[in-house]
Task: inverse folding
């Protein structure tokens, strides 16, 4: 395997790991919001579950395909916006979350989600562009 092939494989593995971590943190975020009563935890939650399913499928089953990289890019971009959205208004530690138990976990989950999702955005974009530059077989 060439050095460029090895580098591509490292980006692929890193993208899978960061995407899986972002999904984990995203599911923590959703579960924590339901437990705190910020989200109803009713059938409307199915949208978040479906988003996680599509993201997981694209990460694992569509790896190294253009469609997989595009899906991972778009969903990761959306996930990286979650902490930014929560920083609006009262901020991460204001409003209903202020002085509640588990505030550290709630804030940490947002920071970890934002960081891992943003790395997934960068890696999926890079992987997509590397596919564009490869000669077709």
Result:
């Amino acid at each position: 395997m060439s050095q460029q092939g090895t580098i591509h494989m490292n980006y692929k593995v890193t993208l899978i790991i960061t995407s899986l971590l972002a999904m984990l943190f995203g599911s923590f975020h959703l579960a924590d919001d339901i437990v705190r009563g910020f989200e109803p935890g009713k059938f409307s939650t199915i949208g978040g579950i479906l988003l996680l399913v599509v993201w997981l499928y694209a990460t694992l089953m569509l790896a190294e395909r253009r469609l997989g990289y595009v899906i991972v890019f778009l969903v990761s971009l959306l996930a990286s916006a979650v902490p930014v959205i929560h920083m609006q208004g009262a901020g991460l530690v204001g409003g209903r979350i202020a002085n509640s138990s588990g505030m550290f976990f709630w804030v940490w989950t947002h920071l970890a989600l934002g960081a891992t999702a943003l790395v997934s955005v960068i890696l999926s974009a890079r992987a997509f562009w590397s596919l564009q530059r490869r000669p077709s077989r």
